[in-house]
Write a structure and sequence with these properties.
This protein is mostly beta strands. The chain has one domain. Helix content is 11%, strand content 46%. The protein has four helices and 18 strands. The strands form two sheets. Strands 1, 2, 3, 4, 5, 6, 7, 10, 11, 13, 14, 17 and 18 form a 13-stranded mixed β-sheet that branches. It has a five-stranded antiparallel β-sheet with strand order 9-8-12-16-15, with no helix packed on it. A hairpin with a 5-residue loop joins strand 8 and strand 9. The radius of gyration is 20 Å and the shape is globular.
Length: 322
C-alpha cells in the first residue's frame, strides 16, 4: 500500500463507509478546508463530510411523492398506486463532538443531526377526491465515527487523522411523538454470514485498521450485484394498528428504491405497546459503490390518518457493491 497522505485519505474517505454510489475523490489538498484551524476542527469537518455520514440525508429523503414501493431504476405504473408519500428535508443542523482517547492514537466523533422537513402524502378521500396532506416533522439522528491518527505534522495538521470506522445511523422522531422504535435488525448475507444489531450507536462497521476495536466488530458487508439479501427488522410500537415498515436501498444521487417489508409476527407486550417483526428479501443492484440499506419504520396512522402525528424510527446498515 502506498503511504502518501493523499492516497491514505482517498482510501479512507472513498473506500471507507462512504456510501455514495458515485463517489468523488475527497482527499484534502495542500490547503486546509474552510474553517479548519486545528486537528479538532479537522476531525469535526471530516466527520460530517464523510460520505457514509452524509448518505443518510439521501437515503431517508425523497425527491418526489412516490408510491409505497418504487424504484428510480425503471418505470413506475402510477395507475395501480393507491398511496404516494415522500419525506422532504428542509433543514439539517449538525453538531459534532470529538473525544481523543488515551494514547492520542484514536478519537471518537459523535455526529448529531436535527432534521426538519415535511412528510407529504398524496391520497384519495372517501368522496374520491385527490388531496395532498402535509405533516411537519423533526427527527434526531446520532452516529459515531472512529478516527485513527496517521501522522503528527504541524504544517498539514488537517491530514493527521482519518476516519476508519462508523457506527450505524440511529434516527427517529423526537418526543412526544416517538411512538415507534426499531429495536433490532438482522441482515442475512450470502454465504451464511449475518449481522445482528440491537444498538446502532455501539455497533461499529470498520473501513480498515482497528481490527480489535469494540470487541472485533465486523467489516462493512461487500455484496455482488444480482445476489439476494434477506433482512429482518423488529420494532416496538405504541400503535394498535400494524405499522408500515419499508426498506430503502441503492440510494445515491442517481438511484433510489423503497420497498415495503412483509409483516411476520406480533406480540402484545401488555403495556400498551406491541413488538412486531417484518422481513424482506431484496435484490442487490448492479451499480457499484458504497450504499446504505435504510429501515424506515412508521406508525400506520402516520400515513393513513390525516390528523395523527408523524412518528417514525430509522436505522441504516452500510454495504458495498463490488
Amino acid at each position: 500500500m502506498k503511504t502518501s497522505f493523499a492516497v491514505l485519505w482517498t482510501l479512507a474517505l472513498v473506500a471507507g463507509l462512504g456510501v455514495m454510489g458515485c463517489h468523488k475523490d475527497n482527499a484534502p489538498g495542500e490547503q486546509s478546508p474552510a474553517g479548519v484551524t486545528n486537528e479538532q476542527s479537522a476531525m469535526q469537518y471530516y466527520a460530517v463530510n464523510d460520505e457514509f455520514v452524509k448518505n443518510d440525508e439521501i437515503t431517508f429523503a425523497d425527491k418526489a411523492v412516490e408510491p409505497m414501493d418504487y424504484t428510480s431504476f425503471g418505470k413506475i405504473d402510477a395507475a395501480v398506486t393507491p398511496l404516494r408519500w415522500g419525506r422532504f428535508i428542509t433543514n439539517i443542523t449538525k453538531n459534532v463532538t470529538i473525544t481523543v482517547q488515551p494514547g492520542d492514537s484514536t478519537a471518537i466523533g459523535k455526529v448529531e443531526k436535527t432534521v426538519t422537513g415535511n412528510l407529504k402524502i398524496r391520497a384519495k378521500t372517501e368522496a374520491g377526491d385527490t388531496v395532498t396532506i402535509t405533516k411537519p416533522f423533526t427527527d434526531l439522528s446520532t452516529r459515531y465515527v472512529i478516527f485513527k491518527r496517521i501522522a503528527r505534522e504541524t504544517e498539514r495538521f488537517w491530514m493527521n487523522w482519518v476516519p476508519v470506522a462508523s457506527s450505524l445511523i440511529n434516527g427517529g422522531t423526537i418526543a412526544p411523538n416517538n411512538l415507534i422504535k426499531i429495536v433490532e435488525i438482522k441482515q442475512y448475507l450470502p454465504g451464511g454470514d449475518s449481522i445482528t444489531v440491537t444498538n446502532p450507536e455501539t455497533f461499529f462497521l470498520r473501513y480498515r485498521w482497528l481490527r480489535l476495536f469494540n470487541g472485533g466488530q465486523k467489516d462493512a458487508p461487500m455484496l455482488l450485484g444480482g445476489t439476494t439479501v434477506r433482512l429482518r427488522a423488529t420494532v416496538v410500537s405504541a400503535s394498535a394498528d400494524t405499522d408500515v415498515v419499508t426498506l430503502r436501498f441503492g440510494c445515491d444521487m442517481f438511484h433510489a428504491r423503497r420497498q415495503r417489508m412483509t409483516f411476520v409476527s406480533q406480540t402484545d407486550n401488555g403495556d400498551g405497546t406491541f413488538t412486531r417483526t417484518f422481513e424482506i428479501s431484496w435484490p442487490v443492484h448492479f451499480h457499484t459503490g458504497f450504499f446504505n440499506a435504510g429501515v424506515d419504520a412508521m406508525t400506520r396512522s402516520t400515513l393513513y390518518d390525516d390528523q395523527a402525528p408523524y412518528a417514525v424510527s430509522w436505522w441504516g446498515i452500510p454495504y458495498r457493491v463490488l
